Amino acid sequence: xxxxxxxxxxxxxxxxxxxxxxxxxxxxxxxxxxxxxxxxxxxxxxxxxxxxxxxxxxxxxxxxxxxxxxxxxxxxxxxxxxxxxxxxxxxxxxxxxxxxxxxxxxxxxxxxxxxxxxxxxxxxxxxxxxxxxxxxxxxxxxxxxxxxxxxxxxxxxxxxxxxxxxxxxxxxxxxxxxxxxxxxxxxxxxxxxxxxxxxxxxxxxxxxxxxxxxxxxxxxxxxxxxxxxxxxxxxxxxxxxxxxxxxxxxxxxxxxxxxxxxxxxxxxxxxxxxxxxxxxxxxxxxxxxxxxxxxxxxxxxxxxxxxxxxxxxxxxxxxxxxxxxxxxxxxxxxxxxxxxxxxxxxxxxxxxxxxxxxxxxxxxxxxxxxxxxxxxxxxxxxxxxxxxxxxxxxxxxxxxxxxxxxxxxxxxxxxxxxxxxxxxxxxxxxxxxxxxxxxxxxxxxxxxxxxxxxxxxxxxxxxxxxxxxxxxxxxxxxxxxxxxxxxxxxxxxxxxxxxxxxxxxxxxxxxxxxxxxxxxxxxxxxxxxxxxxxxxxxxxxxxxxxxxxxxxxxxxxxxxxxxxxxxxxxxxxxxxxxxxxxxxxxxxxxxxxxxxxxxxxxxxxxxxxxxxxxxxx
Length: 617
Fold this sequence. Notes:
Glutamine Phosphoribosylpyrophosphate, subunit 1, domain 1; seven-stranded antiparallel β-sheet
């Protein structure tokens, strides 16, 4: 979940924009800003500082050791000025943290150093056996300065440097390798030491960017795209060793050298800047009509992949968070449109249900990042059982993308806000299109997505925004908000609930309307806000009856529907676009979560305790 960014270059050269390669600290600082959505508790940078004389010596091929300087700060890097402007270096490594072990303190921020101050380490993951390793290292005289599991890695490498080296292998590379093999859990780390960047991974993502006579390393390809489009995605149990002039990849267990596979990142970056918007969340809400238009226009890929779903012997969706509610919507969509049974499981629970997976099964993981460990783990296990993997992801080259037999790219563009908005819309729209294409009705599916695009655009107008802002002021002090829906609107209620929990921190619960009388209605008291999804479908009469039952007990009813009803105390009109209503009805809830956060003085892009990509269990 943390963000990692490193840079190493030959000091005598310049980048293609004329920037000095001795600005490594600045390059890393700016790179970390692009990764802040992965963690914003604290951040830090280590630089190998070089005087002009040292730089000149290195450029001439001479050996001159340089000093490591570490700068750490609490809080968001986006709120900070560049702190290392006086240091000249062609080698730097940085980290933006989402805390797992130890509180949010300067001491716990990365990078961490060994006892000698010669090795700096940044890390993404959890060292599950760190207590055992730390106890042993303390006995051997190592001094720890933090509460983190990460610091163990620095001291392990230091310890291994004193062990007899392997002939033909650099001592530092071998020490990193041996330290990595002692770690339990899913981990990726990068070290900076003696003019090298060395990294190893298992689970958490790392990508190397290739420039002319320089290299980048990051936890997300979006961080390197402005400087290069040539990238190497590091696979599990691989070690990469990068100097100012060369790059080598090894199998971490056998030390066999691996020929790197270079990928070309064919992306655009225009949508990763705020422009006229104050926050990325609002920008990404407003981008949803364009995302829907793109999906409708590029349906050829979906139509080709539909046959895979049609021919599968057992189909299983697996996803987490917002993607799980998109997947749950998919079960309704395939039942309603394609008359096909599709199973669904939350990613973290799928391992306990995997016994029914076999050859002929089709597992469809759905993920924005393609890096969620709770999705990747069961997918890998399903693949070992012989299942085919059909990934629906937003990030080209992600772990899920590389693991899958087939891929459907969401084409949502870069999503910076932690809260999913346009990526969720893209997931559901692609599932609508896929369900129709599975039964040879692709044109009908395309038509619904086009109508959905127009319906969403009608919401994103000043008059409608004013209604949302008025509602947000009414609900500012609400401690509990309940949301109900039936059929396709049930997963919509769950997704809306998640938005209200993660952005404005409102306790909210989503329920199937029919469950009210089975216990849930006991929560209703005078003034309790309840949002009711009442689309113009077979669920309308029953959900209105549920709303009446809630109002009779004092509930304040907020109706989201194509038609008003006297039971509604506050009405949010939406267009009727058949199954596309699952998307349209959610957009007002995205806006409500956003404006409620503003009313409370919160940052809607970076909710507390959350990060965009969940790469730890």
